[in-house]
Specification:
It is a single chain. By secondary structure, this protein is an all-alpha fold. It has one domain. Helix content is 84%, strand content 0%. It contains two helices and no strands. It has helices spanning 3-22, 29-54. Helix 1 packs antiparallel against helix 2. It starts with a helix and ends with a helix.
């Protein structure tokens, strides 16, 4: 996964969580938060990997 794709995935999931919260749709937020955490961790790993390549 590229860093841009990872960041986009984090952004999309965050947007979905925001929309669900505003619509008072709280049932699936636990899963969405877990998905966001995983996507963020993957993004950080990819970012760190790319940063080491350019150093």
């Amino acid at each position: 996964m590229s860093t841009n794709v990872g960041a986009e995935r984090v952004s999309v999931i965050s947007s979905q969580i925001e929309k669900k919260s505003k619509a008072n749709e709280f049932i699936s937020l636990t899963e969405a938060a877990a998905e966001l955490t995983k996507a963020y961790q993957e993004f950080i790993e990819e970012f760190d990997s790319n940063a080491l390549k350019t150093s």
